[in-house]
Amino acid sequence: MAATSPRVLTSEFFDRPADRVARELLGASLVVRAADGRLNRHLVFETEAYLGAHDLACHGSRGLTKRNATMFGPAGRWYVYLCYGMHWMLNIVTGREGVPAAVLIRGVGEHVGPGRLTKSLGIDRSFDGQPASRRAGLWLEASGIALPRRLIERTPRIGVGYAGEWAEKPLRFVVDPERIARLSGQL
DNA sequence: GCAGTGATCATA
DNA sequence: ATGATCACTGCC
């Protein structure tokens, strides 16, 4: 009867190759603490991995800049940047310090699309560089379920056509949101 | 199918 | 200082 308490994912989980983290984040929960203190949980159903300096689709491949500095830092921090002058992109940094790698969170709960989910959840630049933790008010929790591998679809990443052969690597991970909600008993 | 949007970065 | 770029979205 002791309800298993949700496991907050920490740097131990994130300090691994981005593609591994991206796959294992499917079914995890993105938790947002609202202004009134309430917690809102959203199941992660779509992610993309950005592997590091050798990955030409990755911001880190153009070297360290002010914008992407968080990616070069330790794993487990939020990397948030503005895209097309309008949309905030939410990433979680992965791998060793000095290796610019991260996972883009593209879909959670009923929120489809990386720009829409940040808008819906009120996520912006203020989270950039913060550890994903309760203190930040934005964190990730492990799924309580074992997600069957056959439910995971892998495709090339979206919107990175400029990246040559790296544009075609299957580094986007997707599961059907309804299926995963049912598996988690939240439907 | 493509315009909007503006911070960021390279070039100078 | 200037111009190109861009991990998207919404409307044509």
Structure description:
This protein is an alpha+beta fold. It has a single domain (11-184), classed as Methylpurine-DNA glycosylase (MPG) (3-methyladenine DNA Glycosylase, Chain A). Helices cover 14% and strands 26% of the residues. Strands 1, 2, 3, 4, 5, 6, 7, 8 and 9 form a nine-stranded antiparallel β-sheet that branches. The radius of gyration is 16 Å and the shape is globular. The mean pLDDT is 95. The structure holds a DNA duplex (12 and 12 nucleotides).
The CATH topology comes to 3-methyladenine DNA Glycosylase, Chain A
Structural class: alpha+beta
Query: Count the strands?
Result: 9
Low-confidence segments:
none
Labels describing this entry:
187 residues; alpha+beta; 3-methyladenine DNA Glycosylase, Chain A; 9-stranded antiparallel β-sheet; 4 helices; 9 strands; globular; DNA-binding
